[in-house]
Amino acid sequence: TRVIDMINMTATSFFEYFLGRLVSVQGLTFMKSLLLWLVAVILFGFPVNIPAVAGLFVIMILLMSNIIWFGFGFALGLVIRTEDVRDIVAQLLILPLSFLSTIYYPANNAPGILKIIITANPLTHAANIIRPALLGLGHGPVRSLFALFIYLIVVMIILIYFIRRWSAYQEK
């Protein structure tokens, strides 16, 4: 919130602010993920002995997915100037995107257009990759990994555009 005001108040560059936010959000996400995993171990007997390769794979997917969502949110935050509108848009997107993914149920029985939306959702691909890795069932579908890379590239292009645009704006 108030990205431009924060940059002006702290006398940092747009890129420094962006990088600081990205690192802090990544750290927070990993702490939340660790807490969620510990609760799953304690309450549900979730597997404790996850192979190192699977653990690294899960961390890589979490990192990619988090960059995608952070980048999308950051760009959206720059486009929408009013905080209340930003909050409304975020709430209108978060709940449907969560339910229109494979986090809670498989997409096999979803009707027509919903199946297309579920298949296009980056959250679906992250869940399809992380779930089998955590359960010791091997890796998820390669197409989901490919889709996440495509989303990551698109978000990075958008972020580079915004970073250049706002950095040039800040220099004026």
Structure summarized in a few sentences:
With 172 residues, the chain is mostly helical.
Characterise this structure.
- There is one protein chain.
- This protein is mainly alpha-helical.
- The chain is globular, with a radius of gyration of 18 Å.
- Helices cover 79% and strands 0% of the residues.
- The protein contains seven helices and no strands.
Fold topology:
Blueprint: H1 3-10, H2 14-44, H3 52-79, H4 83-99, H5 112-120, H6 122-134, H7 142-171
Number of helices: 7
Strand content: under 5%
Extract low-pLDDT stretches.
none
Total strand count, please?
0
C-alpha termini separation: 22 Å
Secondary-structure class: mainly alpha
How much is the average pLDDT? 82
Q: Roughly how much helix do the residues carry, as a percent range?
A: over 70%
* Helix/strand order: HHHHHHH
Query: Can you tell me the overall shape?
Result: globular
How big is the Rg? 18 Å
List keywords for this structure.
globular; 172 residues; mainly alpha; single chain
